[in-house]
Write a structure and sequence with these properties.
Protein name: Protein kinase domain-containing protein
CATH class of one domain: Alpha Beta
Subcellular location: Membrane
Distance between the termini: 106 Å
Organism: Polyangium fumosum
Helix content: 40-55%
Keywords: ATP-binding, Nucleotide-binding, TPR repeat
Number of helices: 57
Shape: elongated
Largest sheet: 8 strands, mixed
Structural class: alpha+beta
InterPro entries: AAA_16, Kinase-like_dom_sf, Nucleotide_cyclase, P-loop_NTPase, Prot_kinase_dom, Protein_kinase_ATP_BS, TPR-like_helical_dom_sf, TPR_rpt
Length: 1476
């Protein structure tokens, strides 16, 4: 026999009844009110599945639905609760008897038959319960559309007394639990065809299943025979079966007709309601004169099971009397009896309770229609249902007659719910009687009266009040109200009404004259209220908001807000009403991605006048009434105003722009659950015409990333200033788009908790005047952290209330005037004018019963303080913290659980999250906390109304419980959208505090990846480092974190940190031995060697990286390795090998279908190589294609690098002005995104271009900045080239000594790096230096060496330039013949080459050599050179730069010699001679 626990929560387990697919079932005993206990069934999710979200979800659905159902033919469900280690528990009515499956199997085994009309009666009773469930509505009268979806013999129970009940609405579907088409639940053989096909089902599917049950009871076989699951499912889908009479000829044709109609394929042809089916059966029984009732069922069971019905319960612990379904008195324990050896001192307690009186009408008609015996049976069944309903509400009906009773609610451990439970009990009783009356000849109606009373008794260890007595006048008032209440209604006395008035809908009731009261001190009249129904969730929220809107003593402050609003929406003085803002007014400035945009007028805005952006700061201490002031102001705004309201949370203080993101979410309705595309679509709609501004796409994308927590395909780490510009511009356009339609009021509450980035953005927005009808209200405490950001804004400071104002506040809150001043005289000195403290104290004293609102007659109520003799007078709290702590300690368990979870969360939680974490069946506890004023509901989330309550609640948690709760929070939130993107850091912090190091690290890695992808390096660094601190040393994910940190530090130019994480990466790769890790480490090592100029060392590393990446099947790493290899080979002089590496990389990107960005990176590298070997146009095309890709994917740093590469290609093509423009654009991107790595190379290229244009001063300035950048960022890439280019310009200016120093420094670097490219360049510069200093033979040596090195490497420009230098030097040395030959060779090569950065310099050197060597071709060469110079000059568009270019010595010399005259500074040599 399976073992079972002895106790589950407060249930004493008697025996295990069985187990189903998702839960196990026990027979149990539970304590009830007034010293009673009840036998019941407890269902628990199987321990093996307790952690499954799917099983928990199904269990909660069953509980929610089943507790709403009160009908004699439905198994009563009492409560649903979560008891931690004991699991999810559902308690329900214990039905002693059998299910239909057992009954049918016994009949088959014994060869018996179930009497057909008894079978029909059983199905008819089940149909009544089904119809009731199908017709069930919510509090607002909206049908719940409940469908059982699992009607089968096992779920229809028959008691020994003949009662029929439907059980297990375990997979029921209602409107509040949406189902998806295509999902099958239930048992195949009892499914309707539409359910088997996975279509949506309705009540007619249950009717079909009920028809199958009747078919089986009549024939004792399935309509589909014995088929396996697949065949059975197909048969059910088609609805193919034989009529019952095919198998049992004795089946009455009338019943067969009912079966066939219930089981028709098209649902339109079946019974349309279960009631119709029940009525058809009852008509058949009447026509056949078959008198079938519960006694007939009882007789059938006795015949089938015989002595089994008389067997005692199996467990020896179970007393025979435990078989009863009614609550019975508990046996006394020794401590309670007079014969016990030990007497325990019991605590006496006095508490408020609710007394409910019940009378039922319609019984005479029932007896007349069915006879007294049948009426008694029906009455017993109805009373049992009403007993079960009372048990759910912690009460017991004391039946004074078969149709009248009384109950006391509030005797259980949670007396604060007494009034609400009593009212709910009354509603359930009316609803149950209505359901039972549908099949009766006359309706049963209840008269219910509810009054408040005081009960005294003993408090047991569980908090129940036992052996209680009611203090007068409770009995008197209960009798009088109960007798006066009309049938069909519930009348409630004022004491109960005031406690629950905001939870229910009420009607009018007359005042009750009490008459003779036997000398008891009661008013002559009682004010009564007619209870209608529970409020819907929406109605309750509105009621709570209305009840919290009392505002006293803040007229001046409210007037300040009104004045600010009118200023915001009024046209400015001197302005023109109706003139709309244009895009010039809203951000038509130089954007991060381009220059100033043109003005854009939004025509639709011209129909309304515009005011100005106005800001106010509401400042005050906690609880002083800031939120109440703003709420009242907002509630009184005119219609048509858009209110955007967000509340900052301390849990989000670390997340950049979290507050701004909440504003955008409120405006767009988008959130973490939405996709980027959805958010961008919503933003474009809000932007309106401003979505067409040039910068809008980037702004919308950035805002969408903030809202959704997701990021696009960004690969760059843009810096904060670029992100900041995009967000500022985007918010301005967002507000402009909104403001063109209607006035806006933006409220940011709890500004002291805002993140710094949001504070900075708000400061920038509010400092600049805008022609927008917008009022921004910032609500904050006087926090030093916030004050600098609101400095200069108009402040509305709230002070404490005056004593008279405090009295008025309490009067307004309670709706009572009498006695308030007297009570407040003791409270006011303690609260220092703080309204929150005052109201909290009053509420606490009301809940304790120390204060009470009593009725003095004629509708007059008074607030009184009770001084009960013999009771301890509790001291009033002296601090707000003490008061809040007292209030929290007195909360009922469910509400205390909610408070604890909110405290541990550190910020708001969604209602769904709270219900899941606290394991609550509904939101009742949340609603009660909001009604108490401790919490607020806002946009689907719940949080403390005041942060101090969170602090007090959190400090009250012991360390172990905190850790457990943080762990549970982290585990729960990790399954929500909060675990994606930057907000994953919030989840990580909970997991870390819950000592779940590895899951916390996973969340930090997620947040770090999001921060990196959204260009927030510092945040990414922080999260990666936290992840590393949590991950164990051997965890493979450390490798990814180190790799990311190495890449970030490379970008930031922080060389030592980069090396540190690269070394850690290499160590992990060696330890893991996995190919991917090794390949990654090799690629990063090769990249570092390349960046540092250690080319010879990096070459074998890069080659090995390509091989390992290929073996590891990591195509992205393979491409990166080939790209680095190409760079190294190119610098080492193996240009063809480098190009081959690029081609291989491009092949891999194509084969593996990698991201276009990777292909673009390869194209950029290939373009550099093509340019070096003279294929400049191909190089430019490659660079242009790469730039287009980088721009499309938002890879801005790579775009900057590609633009620099294209700039140098333009430089080679001698389009120097275009080279400068591209270089400056590249630098602009670098500055915007905070990129500093390789910026030196761009600065150098811009400097060279300026020098070639003749602006040597600016050129040298850029080159100086380039050299400084190399030094500052330890950037060795192209450092030697920058020094050599600087030396060339200095030589042109005749500054030989400075040039010599630069050349020497470059030589030292080249000796270390071994770069063939730089080696050739160095030789060329040394040749120029030697010639300038009159050492022609040395010049020849250097030039010849450069020429011989350049030729095999394909460095065409360097080869031609070196040849020209050698030619001039040989002529200088007297070697005229050789010099002339070399000059002609160089001249022919330069003219045959499409482009070269030395086009002018080579021609000048060759002309000089030819002229000195007396060559006849010197004049023609000069004229051709002049033509080339004029062509280059034609590329220069800016007049200043063109003038400087023409005054450049080498240019001026060529043009003047070609013209045969000197060039005047005033003349334009381009006009003398033909332009090319």
């Amino acid at each position: 026999m399976a073992m079972h626990p002895d106790q589950l929560a407060d249930f004493e387990i008697l025996r295990r009844l069985g187990a189903g697919g998702m839960a196990e079932v026990f027979l149990a005993k539970k304590r009830g009110a007034e010293g009673t206990y009840k036998l019941l069934v407890v269902k628990r999710v199987l321990p093996a599945h307790g952690s499954s979200r799917r099983f928990r979800s199904m269990f909660v659905e069953e509980a929610h639905l089943a507790t709403r159902l009160n009908h004699p033919n439905i198994v009563q469900v009492y409560e649903f609760s979560d008891h931690g280690d004991d699991g999810l528990l559902l308690s329900m009515e214990y039905v002693e008897g059998f299910d239909l499956g057992k009954i049918m199997s016994t009949a088959r085994r014994t060869g018996a038959r179930i009497p057909p009309f008894v079978a029909a009666y059983i199905v008819s009773e089940a149909a009544k319960g089904l119809h009731y469930a199908h017709e069930r509505k919510d509090e607002g009268g909206v049908p719940l559309a409940i469908v059982h979806r699992d009607i089968s013999p096992q779920n229809i129970l028959v008691s020994y007394e003949g009662a029929v009940k439907i059980a297990d609405f375990g997979i029921a579907s209602a409107n509040l639990f949406r189902e998806e088409a295509g999902v099958l639940k239930g048992k195949f053989g009892y499914m309707s065809p539409e359910q088997a096909r996975g279509e949506r089902v309705d009540r007619r599917g249950d009717i079909y299943a009920l028809g199958v049950v009747l078919y089986e009871m009549l024939t004792l076989r399935s309509p589909y025979g014995k088929l396996d699951d697949d065949a059975l499912l197909e048969a059910v889908k088609t609805g193919a079966f034989q009529p019952p009479s095919t198998h049992v000829g004795e089946v009455p044709p009338e019943l067969e007709s009912i079966v066939l109609k219930a089981m028709r394929g098209p649902r339109e042809h079946r019974f349309q309601t279960a009631r119709d089916m029940s009525a058809a059966i009852m008509r058949t029984l009447l026509a056949k004169q078959e008198l079938v009732d519960s006694a007939s069922i009882e007789a059938m069971l006795l015949e089938l099971f015989g002595r089994e019905l008389e067997l005692p319960l199996a467990s020896p612990r179970e007393a025979p009397e435990a078989a009863t379904l009614a609550a019975v008195p508990l046996a006394r324990t020794p401590s309670e009896g007079t014969n016990g050896e030990k007497h325990t001192r019991v605590a006496r307690e006095v508490r408020h309770v609710a007394v409910v009186t019940l009378r039922i009408d319609g019984t005479v008609d029932l007896e007349n229609a069915h006879g007294k015996q049948a009426a008694r049976r029906m009455g017993a069944s109805i009373r049992q249902t009403l007993d079960d309903i009372a048990f759910k509400r912690g009460a017991v009906w004391s039946w004074e007659s078969p149709w009248s009773a009384r109950a006391v609610v509030g005797l259980m451990a949670n007396p604060s719910r007494a009034a609400a439970d009593a009212a709910t009990l009354a509603i359930d009783v009316h609803e149950a009687l209505d359901g039972a009356s549908e099949d009766l000849p006359a309706p049963l109606r209840a008269s219910i009266g509810i009054v408040r009373g005081i009960a005294s008794g003993e408090r047991d260890p569980q908090g129940h009040l036992v052996r209680h007595t009611l203090q007068e006048p409770a009995d008197l008032l209960a009798d009088r109200v109960g007798a006066a209440t009309p049938f069909g209604t519930t009348w409630v006395a004022g004491g109960v009404y005031r406690l629950v008035r905001r939870e229910f809908r009420w009607g009018e009731a007359p005042s009750l004259t009490l008459g003779d009261t036997g000398g008891l001190r009661v008013p002559a009249q009682m004010r009564l209220y007619a209870l209608d129904r529970l409020l819907t969730r929406e109605e309750r929220t509105a009621e709570l908001a209305l009840g919290q809107s009392d505002l006293v003593g803040r007229d001046a402050e409210k007037a300040d807000l009104y004045a600010a609003y009118h200023r915001a929406v009024s046209p400015p003085l001197g302005g023109v009403p109706g003139s709309p803002p244009s895009s010039e007014a809203f951000g038509a400035q130089e954007s991060p991605s381009g220059p100033r945009t043109q003005t854009f007028d939004a025509a639709p805005m011209s129909r309304r006048a515009f005011g100005e952006l106005v800001a106010r700061v509401v400042v005050g201490e906690m609880g002083i009434g800031k939120t109440a002031l703003v709420s009242t102001f907002l509630s009184e705004l005119p219609g048509g105003v858009l209110v955007v309201q967000v509340e900052c949370s301390p849990v989000k203080m670390e997340l950049p722009l979290a507050t701004v993101a909440d504003v955008v979410r409120d405006v767009t309705g988008m959130g973490l659950d939405n996709s980027l595309d959805e958010a961008q679509g919503a933003l474009r709609e809000v932007f309106g015409p401003f979505a067409r501004t040039p910068s809008a796409p980037r702004e919308i994308q950035r805002l969408a990333e903030l809202v959704t927590g997701k990021h696009g395909d960004h690969q760059e780490e843009d810096a904060s200033n670029y992100r900041h510009d995009l967000v500022v511009q985007g918010i301005r356009h967002l507000l402009a788009g909104l403001g063109r339609r209607q006035p806006i009021v933006v409220v940011v509450d709890g500004l002291q908790w805002a993140d710094r980035a949001s504070l900075e953005l708000l400061k920038e927005l509010l400092r600049r005047p805008e022609p927008l009808p917008i009022l921004v209200v910032l609500v904050t405490r006087a926090d030093e952290r916030v004050l600098p950001y609101v400095e200069g804004l108009v402040r509305i400071e709230l002070r404490g209330l005056e004593p008279k104002e405090q009295v008025r506040l309490v009067e307004a809150r309670l709706g009572v005037r009498e006695g308030v001043a007297a009570v407040c005289s003791e409270l006011v000195p303690r609260v220092a004018g703080n309204p929150f403290f005052l109201l909290e104290m009053v509420d606490a004293l009301l809940e304790r019963g120390t204060l009470e609102i009593v009725e003095r007659g004629e509708g007059v109520h008074e607030l009184v303080r009770h001084e009960r003799p013999g009771e301890r007078n509790e001291a009033l709290p002296s601090t707000l913290e003490q008061l809040i702590g007292d209030r929290l300690r007195e909360l009922p368990l469910a509400e205390h659980d909610v408070v604890d979870w909110l405290a541990a969360a550190g910020g708001p939680l969604t209602e769904t999250d709270i219900l899941a974490l606290a394991r609550l069946p509904d939101d009742e506890a949340i609603t009660r906390l909001c009604a108490r004023g401790l919490c607020d509901r806002r946009a689907g989330s719940v949080d403390f109304r005041h942060p101090l309550a969170r602090d007090v609640a959190y400090l009250a948690l012991d360390t172990a419980k905190r850790s457990r709760m943080h762990l549970s929070l982290g585990e729960h939130l990790s399954r929500t959208p909060l675990a994606r993107g930057l907000s994953a850091a919030i989840v990580a912090r909970h997991l870390a505090r819950g000592e779940a190091a590895v899951p916390a690290a996973e969340m930090y890695l997620e947040a770090a990846g999001a921060a990196r992808a959204t260009h927030q390096e510092q945040l990414a660094l922080r999260y990666y480092l936290r992840a590393l601190s949590l991950l164990p040393p051997e965890d493979a994910r450390r490798m990814n974190a180190h790799a990311a940190l190495e890449a970030i530090y490379r970008h930031l130019g922080r060389r030592s940190e980069r090396r540190k994480h690269l070394e850690a990466l290499r160590k992990l790769a060696r330890q893991s031995g996995k190919a991917r890790g090794v390949a990654l480490a090799l690629v990063r090592t090769a990249r570092l060697d390349c960046d540092d100029g250690h080319l010879a060392r990096g070459l074998p590393v890069a080659q090995r990286a390509t091989e390992i990446a290929r073996l590891a099947r990591q195509p992205a790493l393979e491409v990166e390795a080939y790209t680095i290899l190409a760079e190294i080979l190119g610098d080492l002089g193996d240009v063809q090998g480098a190009i081959d590496a690029c081609e291989r990389a491009l092949e891999v990107t194509h084969t593996a279908k990698l991201q276009p960005r990777l292909r673009a990176e390869v194209l950029r590298s290939k373009g550099v190589l093509l340019r070096r070997i003279g294929r400049v146009e191909e190089a430019a095309e490659a660079h242009a294609e790469a730039i287009a890709v980088f721009r499309a994917v938002g890879a801005r740093r790579s775009e900057a690098r590609a633009k620099n590469a294209l700039a140098y290609a333009m430089f080679v093509m001698e389009r120097f002005e275009d080279a400068i423009a591209l270089g400056l654009s590249s630098i602009g991107i670098d500055l915007a995104i905070g990129g500093r790595f390789q910026i030196a190379k761009t600065l150098s290229n811009v400097g060279q271009a300026y020098a070639r244009l003749g602006d040597t001063e600016r050129g040298l300035s850029y080159l100086k900045r380039a050299r400084e950048a190399h030094e500052r960022y330890a950037d060795q890439d192209s450092r030697a080239d920058t020094l050599l280019c600087s030396a060339e310009i200095l030589l042109e200016l005749g500054m030989n000594a400075e040039a010599s120093t630069m050349c020497g420094d470059a030589g030292a670097l080249v000796a270390v790096t071994g770069s063939a490219y730089d080696t050739v360049h160095e030789r060329i510069v040394r040749a120029l230096l030697a010639r300038a200093e009159g050492r022609p033979h040395e010049a020849v040596v250097h030039a010849q060496a450069a020429r011989k090195l350049a030729e095999p490497q394909g460095l065409l420009s360097y080869h031609i330039h070196a040849t020209a230098i050698e030619a001039a030097a040989r002529v200088d040395a007297g070697e005229h013949h050789t010099g002339v030959l070399l000059a002609r060779t160089a001249l022919g090569a330069i003219e045959a080459t499409s482009f070269s950065e030395y086009g002018i310099e080579v021609r000048a050197l060759c002309i000089e050599a030819l002229r000195k060597g007396a060559s006849s071709g010197a004049r023609d060469a000069l004229l051709r050179a002049a033509t080339h110079v004029r062509k280059v000059a034609g590329y220069v568009r800016e007049g200043r730069l063109r003038a400087l270019f023409l005054r450049r010595p080498v240019v001026e010399r060529i043009l003047s010699e070609a013209d045969g005259s000197d060039v005047s500074p005033r003349s334009d040599p381009l006009r003398r001679g033909e332009m090319a």
